[in-house]
């Protein structure tokens, strides 16, 4: 009986060690895949406050990679009516901070987002303008949480925790990455802050 318990404990420990490494490899594989030169996505953002009240936004996004390998994207808010037709443009710069602009239809005005505004609220949400930039893979540690089905696709469920030296407004996030490597996209992200 003691041998079985010891063997089970050893297998569980080895399994947990492998899943942490596997989680990193899954996220790395997804982030390093060859991306198409152009993309289009319809996104649903659900903001949940501490009382559990939800505020939903629907966003359409187009992205393109230029000949220098820099990505340019525009997000167009489709709903709710209070933010409809607001546009957010990002021009990636490989050698400096990204350039960002926002078009506010109520004012019929385009405003450049200064680098010093990186920590400012993005569209009245908990997100900041800085959050709209890509994250560095090695700024986080990853835990494999299992698999779940999202919108009919089997996904790896992975927790991402910012490293101690990583500047982050969030405690952790959970990613759902498709198991099917021919798709290999993040279908859902939940971000948590205290």
Determine the number of helices (DSSP H or I, runs of at least 4 residues). Answer: 1
- Provide the low-confidence segments as ranges: 1-18
Order of the strands making up the biggest sheet = 1-2-3-4-5-6
Distance between the termini: 44 Å
Number of strands: 10
Q: Which sheet architecture does the biggest sheet show?
A: 6 strands, antiparallel
Tell me, briefly, the overall form. Answer: globular
Rounded to an integer in angstroms, the radius of gyration calculated over CA atoms is 20 Å
The proportion of residues forming helix, as a percent range, comes to 10-25%
Compressed to H and E, one letter per element, the order equals HEEEEEEEEEE
Mean pLDDT, nearest integer? 81
Structural class: alpha+beta
Which band does the percent of strand residues land in? 35-45%
Task: Tell me what you see in this structure.
- This protein is an alpha+beta fold and 194 residues long.
- Helices cover 16% and strands 43% of the residues.
- It has one helix at residues 2-32; strands at residues 38-48, 54-65, 71-79, 87-91, 99-104, 109-113, 140-150, 153-162, 172-178, 186-192.
- A six-stranded antiparallel sheet has the order 1-2-3-4-5-6, with no helix packed on it. A four-stranded antiparallel sheet has the order 7-8-9-10, with helices on one face.
- The protein is globular and about 50 Å long.
């Amino acid at each position: 009986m003691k041998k079985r318990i010891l063997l089970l404990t050893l297998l569980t420990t080895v399994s947990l060690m492998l899943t942490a490494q596997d989680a990193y490899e899954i996220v790395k594989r997804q982030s390093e895949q060859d991306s198409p030169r152009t993309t289009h996505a319809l996104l649903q953002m659900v903001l949940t406050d501490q009382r559990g009240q939800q505020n939903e936004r629907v966003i359409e996004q187009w992205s393109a990679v230029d000949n220098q390998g820099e990505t340019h994207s525009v997000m167009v808010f489709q709903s709710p009516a209070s933010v409809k037709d607001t546009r957010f443009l990002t021009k990636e710069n490989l050698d400096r901070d990204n350039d960002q602009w926002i078009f506010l239809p109520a004012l019929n005005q385009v405003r450049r987002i200064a680098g010093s505004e990186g920590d400012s609220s993005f569209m009245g949400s908990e997100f900041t303008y800085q959050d709209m930039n890509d994250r560095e893979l090695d700024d986080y540690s990853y835990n494999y949480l299992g698999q779940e089905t999202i919108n009919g696709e089997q996904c790896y469920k992975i927790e991402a925790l910012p490293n101690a030296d990583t500047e982050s407004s969030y405690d952790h996030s959970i990613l759902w990455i498709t198991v099917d490597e021919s798709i290999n996209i993040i279908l859902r992200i939940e971000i948590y802050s205290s």
